[in-house]
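Extended Data, panel c. Modelled sequence:
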Amino acid sequence: MANAEIIVVGLGELGTIVDLYNEVFRPSRDRAFFERRIRGRVNPLILMARMDGRPVGFSVCYENKPGTFYCWLIGVLPDYRRSGIASQVMEAIAAWASENGYHTIRFECFNWQRPMLHVALSQNYAIVGMRFDRQTQDNLLILEHSLTDGGEEE
């Protein structure tokens, strides 16, 4: 298992996050796309995962509603997948959210993103719903993790 360095970064590193995103996801996005999504959000959190000083993964999160922290994106470069980096990023998100008074973390994942679903389930996330995404014309699973009772939903 990898032992990545997970660090909190600011908007000054947004260019690196955009580059990582474009190596992981399609269609590609520009910096303005991220700036629009983050603008006006409460408690935005941008994490970067590094191995040997090289950026290899990231997450972008923010408050969804009081008490609930939303993980909008998690990505790991293809060559670094299956090494535990996504789990480390999710643990860092949970630690930050807990330290900042949140009791639930929520994120959404397409059903076909099986590796991410496996990571989420291994981190005690529960599938709590589903919604249709108009942009992709596909269903997203809604997953939540409770920070107050060891991860089991009530």
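The helical segments are 14-24, 31-38, 85-99, 114-122. This feature is highlighted in the accompanying rendering.
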